[in-house]
Design a protein that fits this description.
Number of helices: 3
Order of helices and strands: EEHEEHEEEEEEH
Strand content: over 45%
Radius of gyration: 13 Å
Structural class: mainly beta
Helix content: 10-25%
Amino acid sequence: MAVTTVVNETGVHVRLTGWESLFGFARRVDIDADQVGSAQRMRWDEVREHFGRRLGSAYLPRGRAGGWFLVTKGRQHLVWCWLDRGEPALVVRTNRFRPGQIAVAASTVTYAEGSEWFTRRVT
């Protein structure tokens, strides 16, 4: 039961198993490489301050947040996230509405061979 995020030559791929897939309201989230706009590392509280309405999401014990949120500040879009309080997050902005961005705990990210395109986009 875990959350794994893999960045490779085809894009960013998040896989959830076990209870995480239930509380994250998704089993997988895939973003193709050509749909990635930018990425950056942010603090947990910086990511959460932009969340608007909860659309299929959960706040769990120990400060974990997962699922879908609507962002209404700036460009309106949906955010999918899996975050742990106090842990840095990797935020990936996309060129789509759903998800307009994903935010995952930085500790879940693995950079596979061929991910050089992504590291150039991280600010």
